[in-house]
Amino acid sequence: AGLGQAPARQAAIRGGVPATVPAVTVNKVCGSGLKAVMLASQAIRAGDARAIVAGGFESMSNVPYYLRGHREGVKFGDRELVDGLIHDGLWCSFGQCHMGGHAEYTAEKAGVSRDEADEFSLASHRKAVAAIEAGQFEAEVVPVEIETRRGTTVVDEDETPRRDTSLEALSKLRPAFAADAPEEVEELAVTAGNAPGLNDGAAALVVASQEFAETHGLEVDARVG
């Protein structure tokens, strides 16, 4: 929300892709990036393309607030601000529920306990930190420079993985969505420590046919079955 028309094409043009190359924006919320890769694979299998850049990006910090009804004019009195991040990103239009509350429902249905969620989260943090410290992502990360009052800050690694977290620390965190969880949920499992944070980020990869990769001498990291 608030990005202007055709976000995918904006990214392509500003990334140096020629204007003659078409771009498609996919809006499938959290599944958008994966869906873009699926569409790329299908297009290549169909013979419509040989190589496609596919990925996703999100800037949760820049989502605007909405003022409903102002286009028709406003009478005296207060108006409500609608959080676009919740309305368009974290709210189910069909079940009329918050994504965090639905995560609690899903955990209950799948039999995932609070302890299991914390243990999985700790393992994820440790694996991410180990990979970062080993330089596994250095060739894949594009550093971003941010101008601040204190000078230029360079962001060259993911900020979410916590080096200092522990199972004890995770277990002390309160449930993040107690007010949004369905009444039938007996054990609340989702906290700020085992759930995704509010993030800005982007990722992309090249999906290509085997013939294209071999012709251009490209190293293949993975294959789509």
In N-to-C order, the SSE pattern is HHEEEHHHEEHEH
Helical fraction: 25-40%
Number of domains: 2
Structural class: alpha+beta
How many DSSP-defined strands?
Answer: 6
Largest β sheet strand count, sense and barrel closure: 2 strands, antiparallel
Percent strand equals: 15-25%
Number of DSSP helical runs: 7
- Low-confidence sequence ranges: none
Largest sheet strand order: 1-6
Alpha-carbon distance between the two ends: 34 Å
Record the SSE blueprint.
Elements: H1 7-14, H2 32-45, E1 51-59, E2 65-67, E3 81-83, H3 84-89, H4 99-110, H5 114-133, E4 144-148, E5 151-155, H6 167-171, E6 200-208, H7 210-215
Word description of this protein:
It is a single chain. The strands form three sheets. This protein has a two-stranded antiparallel ribbon with strand order 1-6. It has a two-stranded antiparallel sheet with strand order 2-3. Strands 4-5 form a two-stranded antiparallel ribbon. The chain has 225 residues and is an alpha+beta fold. The protein has two domains: 1-66 and 195-225, Peroxisomal Thiolase, Chain A, domain 1 (3-Layer(aba) Sandwich); 90-194, no CATH class. It starts with 6 loop residues before the first helix and ends in a 10-residue tail after the last helix. It has helices spanning 7-14, 32-45, 84-89, 99-110, 114-133, 167-171, 210-215, and strands spanning 51-59, 65-67, 81-83, 144-148, 151-155, 200-208. The model has no long low-confidence stretch (mean pLDDT 94).
